[in-house]
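Weekly puzzle thread! Below is a chain. First person to post its structure in token form gets bragging rights.
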Amino acid sequence: MWELFVAFILGIVEGLTEFAPVSSTGHMILVDDFLLHSKELFSAPVANTFKVVIQLGSILAVVVVFKDRILNLFGLKKNIPGTESGPKLTLAQILVGLIPAGVLGVLFEDYIDEYLFSIETVLIGLVIGAVLMIIADYARPKRPSAETVDQITYKQALGTGLFQCLGLWPGFSRSGSTISGGVLLGMSHRAASDFTFIMAIPIMLGASGLSLLKNWKYFTIDALPFFIVGFISAFIFALISIRFFLKLINRVKLVPFAIYRIVLAAVIYFVFL
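Winning reply:
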């Protein structure tokens, strides 16, 4: 029962933080290393593979929320309410946004896994990412050139993709870096968030798929309930957090999330380190 409880809690952490600009990887490392110690339940490879599996639960939640948009991108749904006329987001724009982080992620995956997954590096990422978010809110154009995701240009898509590379550092937050970059490049907070979440589907599927192929041997029968509970928990809470965040972001902007990150980093540093 303790194993299932650990899986449930880590699924909650993943689901609630994956798409908020606070770093889901950072939160899972902190919660697991300080409180749950999942590596002691099975082994370090199984624990690391589990964290990949629950990300797939979060991806499924994005697919559910953006199902109409995804179908439209592939020409399977013609009309989305509010987008009957004018420009439309295209698969090509998403591809342009994916290329920078995709290339760097493949090149430096082993280095990141070996050297950057620690509490110290997460704290650095939390603070520097928070600074970027504060800069984005105060230095952004007063009038966004892209109020909706359909108004994003190829230049903005590429620039946002370059900012996404910062999210490869654990604790920095992929969504935090891309939303900040999008806002600085002239998107509204909601447009940048929508673009970030849609880009998350292929990039997280690719990263998760590669990791699963490398670690397939760790899917043992005794670990299967652990994986299933974490997956379901992550899906449910990601579904809740995505809908809540998209309603909230245009009103509160990024600064409150940045303050939370700085406070969290300070508490962890002074209390635990």
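Puzzle host: Confirmed. Bonus trivia for everyone else. The mean pLDDT is 88.
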